[in-house]
Amino acid sequence: MSRTKLEQLGIHLPLYPTTSVGSFPKPDGLMKARGEFSKGKISHAQLEQAEREATEFWIRKQEELGVDVLVDGEMYRGDMVAYFAENFDGFTQGGLVRSYGNRFYHKPIITGEILWKGSITVGWWKYAQSLTTKPVKGMLTGPYTIMDWSFNEFYPDRRAASLALAREVRKEVEALIAAGAKIIQIDEPATSVRPEELPIAIEAMHAVTDGLSAYFITHICYGAFDAIYPGMLEFPVDNFDLEMSNSGLDMLELFRKSPYTKDISFGVVDVHSHAVEGKALVEERLRKALEVIPRGAVWVDPDCGLKTRSVDEAIGKMKVLVEVAKALRG
Predict the structure, then answer these.
(1) Distance of CA 3 to the CA centre of its chain
(2) What are the residues whose beta carbons fall under 8 Å from the beta carbon of 17, sequence distance 6 or more?
(3) 10, containing H or E segment
(4) Of 68, 202, 258, 266, which residue is 20 to 30 A from 56 by alpha carbon distance?
């Protein structure tokens, strides 16, 4: 559906373009370096070199597998919210809270005016893009989710905090576009948790994307989709990246009741399972999507959370989805 927009941006993709949500598991060498850095045994420069090596590993691996739209794998990040909070003025680091499973993050606290200090992800995007001729997505966390996963001790309410963040996140988007990024994903996983605040999330995304020339994707996962659909289609983005397989493709029933009108990055492998799905199962999931969504609107990717799998499991799951997408193009 947005193929024309992509072509206007100079990006020509095949039918059923393949991609990933964003994060890949960190290789053992990087995990060791992160541990040594936390203990003061290596310098920040040495840690960054390990992050660059891990980024190159995943770019090369995606190319080897035949992925169409690449991600940098987020080797330089820990938590998706804390990473950005650490790079904006106005935040103080809070204590550890559980994210999910046995994963924890330092919950940020908004204690002052939020200000963009300069590019946060541009250097990493430029490095990843320099390693390949295929398009690499710019990867950001959206303003609503940063607000929702932080404590607010400065702004009068949640809307005000979201819009303040949106103004500063937009500056990072502008910097990515100026650097050459044409596909930019702005993750908003918190959107489906509080359906009553959907208008705030949409207003904030307008503040981020309106008037900017890029193909925009937003990722939403795990929540009350029945309460935010079809209202979520008002987001000013071109593509929703949605986990589908972990929930048994149940959102397709929502799409049957009220037509889905945007592109979709359709999760065809369940990243909460260690097992690598067979081609037959992945093809079955993709064909069910095509019963409801026009084929020109469908991108193929995993559910969110590949970083929780082993490197071999992540590679296996990406391999099978690429092979199925290529086979169906015929």
Answers:
(1) 20
(2) 68, 69, 299, 300, 325
(3) none
(4) 266
pTM exceeding the 0.85 threshold for the entire prediction: yes
Sheet order of strands, 88-100 included: 88-100, 103-116, 151-152
The predicted-structure confidence for 12-39, as pLDDT tens digits, reads as follows 999 999 999 999 999 999 999 999 998 9
State how far the Cα of 86 lies from the Cα of 236, in Å rounded to an integer: 27
Q: Which of 306, 300, 293 is nearest to 322 (CA)?
A: 300
| pLDDT value of position 212 | 97
Report the distance separating Cα 231 and Cα 224, nearest Å: 12
Q: How many CB atoms lie within 10 A of CB 246?
A: 18
Measured CA to CA, the distance from residue 301 to residue 30 in angstroms comes to 25
Residues of the chain above pLDDT 70, percent: 96
Which domains, and CATH codes, for the chain?
Answer: 3-26+67-80+116-329 (3.20.20.210)
- Residue 80: what pLDDT? 86
- Helical axes 122-130 vs 44-65, angle rounded to 10°: 50
Q: Which residue has the tokens 């200090």?
A: 117
- Give residue for tokens 């190319």: 63
Name, in order, each residue with C-beta under 8 angstroms of 322's C-beta and a sequence gap of 6 or more.
18, 65, 66, 67, 300
Q: Outline where 157-276 has alpha helix (H).
A: 158-179, 198-209, 225-228, 251-257
- Nearest-Å Rg of the Cα atoms of the chain is 19
| Among candidate residues 322, 262, 287, 271, the one with its CA nearest the CA of residue 23 | 271
Q: 189-209, pLDDT tens digit by residue?
A: 999 889 999 999 999 999 999
Give the three-state DSSP class for 43: coil
